[in-house]
Design a protein that fits this description.
The structure is a homodimer of 411-residue chains. Chain A is of the alpha/beta class. In chain A, the strands form four sheets. A seven-stranded mixed beta sheet of chain A has the order 10-18-13-17-14-15-16. In chain A, strand 14 and strand 15 form a beta hairpin. The radius of gyration of chain A is 22 Å and the shape is globular. The relative contact order of chain A is 0.14. About 1% of the residues of chain A have low confidence. Chains A and B meet through helix 2, helix 9, helix 10, strand 16 and helix 12 of A and helix 2, helix 9, helix 10, strand 16 and helix 12 of B.
Amino acid sequence: MIDGGVTAASGYVANALSCGIKKPEATRLDLALIYSELPTTSAGTFTTNRVRAACVRVSESHLRRGNIRAIIANSGNANACTGAAGVAVARKECAVVAKHLGLKAAEVAVCSTGVIGLPMPMMRIEPRLPELCADLSADKGHNVASAIITSDTREKEVAVELTIKGKKVRIGSCCKGAGMISPCMATMICLICTDVAVAREDLDALVHEGVEKSFNSITIDGDMSTNDTCLVMANGAAGVSVAPGDADWEKFAAALKFVMLEQAKHIVQDGERVTKFVTVRVVGAPTHAEAKRVAEGVAKSNLVKSSWNGGDPNWGRIIHAVGYSGRRVREEKVDIDIAGLPACRGGAQTTTKSDDLRERVQAREFEILINLNMGAEEHTVYTTDLSPEYVDFNRSEYAYWNQAKQDGLTH
Amino acid sequence: MIDGGVTAASGYVANALSCGIKKPEATRLDLALIYSELPTTSAGTFTTNRVRAACVRVSESHLRRGNIRAIIANSGNANACTGAAGVAVARKECAVVAKHLGLKAAEVAVCSTGVIGLPMPMMRIEPRLPELCADLSADKGHNVASAIITSDTREKEVAVELTIKGKKVRIGSCCKGAGMISPCMATMICLICTDVAVAREDLDALVHEGVEKSFNSITIDGDMSTNDTCLVMANGAAGVSVAPGDADWEKFAAALKFVMLEQAKHIVQDGERVTKFVTVRVVGAPTHAEAKRVAEGVAKSNLVKSSWNGGDPNWGRIIHAVGYSGRRVREEKVDIDIAGLPACRGGAQTTTKSDDLRERVQAREFEILINLNMGAEEHTVYTTDLSPEYVDFNRSEYAYWNQAKQDGLTH
C-alpha cells in the first residue's frame, strides 16, 4: 500500500470544483473529472436496482460500446428518477467533456450521487465544465475523493504498488458510500485506475469477481442504491501488460481485489452514525447461497444491529435472524461464537459467562461466527450496528428540496 | 364490536397471575390460562421461522393430534433456543394443567413470549399452576390480555357480536406484539375464542385465509419472531353452528377476519416507539407476489421509515425501495401518491408542491399508494416509521440475563 488515490498510477490526471450542488454556499467540492492520457481498457458494474439513475444508464451504454477514458462525477444530486430530462443532462455532460478533451462522447462515463428525485441543477454545472477540463493534473486525485463524498465523514482512497514482470505498477482508487448500502449489487461509487495494460475481457472478469467478494458483501442499512457504480480503467502507462496465465497475473488479480475489499471495508467503517464494524461469517452451510442468505439476514436484522449498538451479546436475536433468513437451517445444529467465545452450541446456550461475552462486544470491531454444521460452504458479510443517531440523521432531506425550489427545479 | 376480550364468548373462563417471569418484583401479570368449558374445534398457525420455540413445537403437535380446550401462556421468556429441556418444560406445563382440568395433555396448547435463549424459570411457574387452574372465571379475560404483553404499551382486545341463524353469537380475542414483527408468517400471539360451532376443517381454512391478510400483512421492524402463534377455539356454547354454504357463513367469516385484521392493526399501532401508522398499498402489479414483494420492500426500508419519522414525504426513497424489491418493476411506469396527493408520475416528480406533501405526512396515519401500472393485482401492508427511540429501546436485554443469573439459569 502506498499513499495516493485515484491518480496514483501513471497517466491519469484529475480536477475537482465547487459548483454549489452539494451545498449552495459552494464551499465543498462537488464536481470531479478523471482523465486517462492514454487509451484504456475499461470494466464496470452497476446497481441491480430496477430503478436506475440516468447516469448509470448512460455510463453502462457507453461502456457497452467501448472503453472509456474520462469519468465525470458529482455529489449532491443523484440524477435518479429524473425522467428523459435526466438522461439528456447526463448525455450532455459527457458530450461537453468529450469535446473539451478531444474524445468521443461514448468515451466518457458519468457518475452522480446524492438526493433522488430532484432534477440536476445543470445551470450550476454547465458553465464550469470548460474550467473543469482545462486544469487537470496528476496531483488532484485527492480532490476527486473529496468531491464524490456525501454523508461520508472522510475521503476513501486506496493505492497499491507492486512489481509485474520486473516493472513497478500501481492501482489507485477513490470511493464513496456511507448510507443506502446493501449487498446484491455493485454498491456505491468506486473509481479505480491502473497503469498496467490488461485485455478488456480479462479486466471485466476480474472486476466482477472482485465486486462479488467486496462491495457485494457489505451492508449498512439494507437499502440498495439507484446509483451504485464501480468503474475500472487500465491504461498501460507503466509499460507492462498482464494476462491470465502470466506468472504475475495472480499477483495483479490479488492486488486489484485487495483494493476493492479495502474500499468496501472503508465504506462500512464510515457507515452513517455507526459505532461498530462487525464481520458476520457463516460457515458449514450446505450451499454458498444458503451461507449468503443467513449472513445477510443477520447483518440486516434491525434487532440484532440495535443490540450491537447497546454492546449486548444477544445470541438469541442472532439465531432468530438465522432462522428466518435460512431455508435449510436446522436449529439444533447451529453454533454461534461471538468475538471468539462460544455463545451457542446446538441451538442452546453455553456455559460462557454472559459478562465475558458482554466485555468482548464493547470493542469497536468483532466477529460473529455462525456454523450451520450442514456442509462446507461459507460467506462473509461486513456490516455495522444500527444507532438511534442513524435514524435521526436520515429523518429529512428538506434542505435539498428547499434549494431545488430556489433553483426553480421543483414545486 | 362490543366491549370485552378473549372470554367475551360464552363458555370460556380464564385466569392470570404474577409469577415474576416478566419482572422479578412480581407486580405484573405474566402467566395466563384460558379454558373452554365445552369441547371445541380448533385451528392455529405458527411461525415459519426455521428456529421455532419449544412452545410452538409442542402446541403444533398437540393441535395436529386433535382439538384443544385450554391455552396456557406466559410473557417474559420465549422458551426459544432452550433445547430439549425447553420442550420438556412446555410439555410439563401442558400435562400439569391438563391434570388439574381433567383433560388430556394434548388438549392444552402453550404459548410463550419474551426473551430468546434463556431457560424457562419453571421454579417460578410450577408452584403456581394449581392456583392458576383453580380460580378460573369468565370475567378475567382482560387479565389474560395483560399477562401476555411484553413491550406493548396496552392490552389488545377485540370482541364482536353478530346474529347467526337468529342467535346472538360472539367472537372474543386478545393479542400481543410490538417488536420483532414482520410478515411472511402468522405473527406474534393472538388467541381467539368463539361460541359458534364450526367444523374443524372449515375453521382451519378460514383462519389461514384470515391470517394471510392480517398478521401476514404487517411489519414493524422486519424481524420475524420464533414464537408467532395464532390460536382459535370454537365451542358452540351459543347453540348454533355454521358451515360454508349456510346463509350466514360469509357473515361469520367476515366477522372472524375483521377481528384478526383489527388485532393486526392494533399491533402496528402499538409498535415499539413508533410515531406513524402507514398503509402501503401497491396496485397495478402483474402478479400478487410482485405486489407483495414491493409493498413489503417499501414497508421494511430503514431509509423510507426514517423519513416518515421525520415527516419527510420522500418519494425518491420510496421509489428506490420499489426498485430493489420488485423483480419486474418498470421505473417509467411507476406512480406514487402520498396521503392522497400525486407525488410521482411515470417515475419522475409531479407539480405537487413539496410543502403540501410535507403537511400531509405530519399526520399520524396516512397511505402510500404505489401503482406499478403493469396489471391488476394488489397487496396492502400496514407498517410504521422507524424512530431513534426504537433503536434505543432495543439496545439491551441485560436485565433478563441478570435475573436469569440470579435464578441459576445462565452463567
